[in-house]
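task queued by scheduler; priority normal; single chain, no ligands, no partner chains; default sampling; output format set to structure tokens
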Amino acid sequence: MGNPLTTIGFDADDTLWHNERFFALTQVKFAELLADYTDRDSLMDRLLEAERRNIPHYGFGIKGFTLSMIETAIEITQGRVPADVISQILAAGRDMLAHPVELLPDVCETLEALQDTYTLVLVTKGDLLDQERKLAESGLRGMFSAIEIVSDKTPQTYQRIFDSHGDGPARGMMIGNSMKSDVVPMIHAGGHGVYIPYGITWALEHAPAPSDSPRFHQIARLSEVAKLLP
């Protein structure tokens, strides 16, 4: 791997615990609420457009998703969406913010095996309060030397984080389920990016795999990280 690794970053949502499946379930309910106005595929396309527009204003996370659902409902119904539907959309958003944390397989064992040898950093996007809640409920806080809840994940973000908590990106590795957020920008910053596919991936997190980079790695599950390390 060239320079010996000293610092490993981990994404949170859908890398350490389940997240996207709660969005998928809420989208099913959203489609049911607006079934009288449009078909599901058209609704999901409009919702994705709204999310893309709103990220610069609301950021990533459940609150922005909920506001995008309301905006989409208003657009689809040409302003005639019933107040009860708006109320149910808001309730669905609150339910998402209260869902229990369910860890993915091998998480505790993998972090425990690495924490004495490497500096472990949690790097996640999303609503600050929601991410803090999930981290607290996960029981994983004590395994990380640092927690970084960021507005976006760019090469500059990783440069700052791995400079602050390690020996720079060149001696760092970032592990996550998003090619766009966890892998590609870390490689551009000079570090290693490890991709672990999750069953569902938000369309806005898709990106081509940097397969020509020697610092790109793909594994099937978190426990396989050990195979990448000396």
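post-processing summary
- The longest strand covers residues 119-125.
- The CA atoms of residues 126 and 148 lie 11 Å apart.
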